[in-house]
Amino acid sequence: MKEACGVVGIVMPGRAVSHLCYDALYALQHRGQESAGMATFQNQQITVVKDNGLVSHVFAETTLRALGGSLVIGHTRYSTSGSANWTAAQPVYRAAGASGFALAHNGNLTNTHELADAANVEFTSMLSDSDLVAELLSLEVDSGVTLDDALANVLARAEGAFSMVVLEAGRIHAVRDPYGFRPLCLGRLGTADEPEGWVVASESPALDVIGASFVREVAPGEMVTLTEAGVTSRQLLTPSLEGEKLCIFEFVYFARPDSYLMGHQVHTTRRRMGELLAEQSSVAADLVMGVPDGGVPAAEGYAKASGVPFGYGLVKNRYIGRTFIAPDQRARAAGVRRKFNPLRENIEGLRLIVVDDSIVRGTTTQALVAMLRDAGAKEVHLRISSPPFTWPCFYGIDTPNREELLAANHSVAEMSEFVGSDSLEFITLENLRAAIHLEGECCDACLTGTYPAPVPVALGARGGRW
Ligand code: SF4
After folding, report:
1. Within 6 Å (CB) of ligand 1, which residues are found?
2. Beta strand pairing status for 35-42 and 45-52?
3. What does the DSSP assignment read for 113-178?
4. What number is the average pLDDT over the span 262-288?
């Protein structure tokens, strides 16, 4: 599974903020590595710089120095909608209104074709859903509507997931969809008595890294507007009657461990998932290890609760670029070897409990188990800190079709046989919820098939449930 973008917006009166935006985007690099971009406002003009590649590749020091202005928005992209080429990099710009506007989006809209048809806009596969929103906003702004009202009009018709930042002359708007599928938080530079600036970002570490304090999460359906004078809030869209539906996989896998979501530090919830998994499914073993990085905090929790020693059995290469869908098992094993290498002396002759965060197609897990056995592991017992992944995501996470999801088509015993483990257990949904202290406030559609927001009819949705 791949995350689908990170967004940032910063206002700091009297200061050029492109370097701050760079650091904040760097902290959100895990949310998308295909492209990075920024839009700044200076001298009544918006300037956009974006390109394919990592944040550090796209922005040289000279570029950052040239990007003046006290208002900036930024984006890191992983594509789930539209093309992955340069034209899909964000922010997207439209020359509508006095200064034009630039827009950056995390999420995925599920009714793009209906939106485009209703407005008579041609929507090709080369366009992203973010381009479409920009196009619809332009039509409104060109007809004399303010950008705030244009956002209200267009986003009221949009279905799906969006945490969006939009820059116009002197203002940054940050909007979260009525379900709050994707995270978005507000921070402050300076003190509460003497604020020096304001920040919005997908995750709280982007605030930490630039010395901003976390203020609060942007509420579902809310729009906060940042200007040099301060922050204002408007309930732009009616929040979902079911309450917030933040993606539960932000806790399991996507968000950084040092992020705070719904008041909980993500690392703490991952350790707790491991503890509950141990209580749920114990097995005699010599060592508990996590698959780096996602499985490590849960492995620590598992070891603590089970009394089995924790250790390291795999080293991960952190400099892997884009990976490809490997055509056969041999190529997949090569792909896994490129990413992981076993610590032979730590695992040789041992019965291992291996904790990972998820199984999607199962092919990576299969290659990983084979690698551990080749390195001398006597037994491999897999423990997974998310329930079986049985339904695709339509809200901004890139997942395979249902036919390719291992858990959608096989029993746990069959899955264990397929990946070659001695045993396999998944955390239950109740325990996952208990680990996050949830009372129903998260989306778990890919685990349950109950989709909170409508999904594309063409893909078989019936009344929000497949
Ligand atoms: S369907 Fe799954 S991956 Fe998608 S938003 Fe919901 S919980 Fe997250």
Report:
1. 181, 247-249, 393, 395, 397, 443-446
2. antiparallel
3. HHHHHHHT----TTS-HHHHHHHHHHHHHHTT--HHHHHHHHHHH--EEEEEEEEETTEEEEEE-T
4. 96
Distances (CA, A) of 31 to 35, 183, 210, 238: 11, 11, 18, 27
429 and 330 in one domain?
yes
**CATH of residue 124:** 3.60.20.10
Nearest-atom number in ligand 1 for the CA of 249 is 8
Q: Higher pLDDT residue, 118 or 321?
A: 118
d(CA 442, CA 250) in angstroms, rounded, equals: 10
Q: Which of 203, 160, 216 is nearest to 443 (CA)?
A: 160
In a domain, 160, yes or no: yes
Q: Per DSSP, which regions of 185-221 are E strands?
A: 185-190, 195-201, 213-217
**Residue 29 in contact with residue 41, Cβ under 8 Å?**
no
Query: Residue 81's pLDDT is what?
Result: 55
Domain residues for the domain of 315 are 268-437
Q: Determine which residue's CA is closest to atom 8 belonging to ligand 1.
A: 247
Q: What is the pLDDT of residue 465?
A: 39
Specify the 3-state DSSP secondary structure of 22. Answer: helix
With 70 as the cut, is the pLDDT of residue 410 above it?
yes
Total domains in the chain come to: 2
Helix or strand or coil: residue 42? strand
One domain for residues 43 and 100: yes
pTM strictly above 0.85: yes
What φ, ψ does residue 447 adopt, rounded to 5°?
-100, -25
Catalytic residues: 5
**Does residue 82 come out as left (phi exceeding 0), alpha (psi in the -120 to 50 range) or beta?**
left
- The atom of ligand 1 lying closest to the CA of 452 is 6
Give yes or no: residues 139 and 283 share one domain: no
- Looking up residue 421, the CATH number of its domain turns out to be 3.40.50.2020
If asked whether residues 206 and 277 sit together in one domain, one would say no
CA torsion through residues 441, 443, 445, 448, sign: negative
Phi-psi region of 97 (alpha: psi -120 to 50; beta: other; left: phi over 0): left
DSSP H stretches of helix in 307-351: 329-339, 344-347
- List the single range of 142-146, 251-255, 259-263, 335-339 with lowest mean pLDDT: 335-339
| Distance in Å, CA 222 to ligand 1 centroid | 21
Q: For a substitution probing ligand 1, which of 159, 182, 254, 397 has the most ligand atoms within 8 Å of its CB?
A: 397
* Ligand 1 atom with minimal separation from the 247 CA: 8
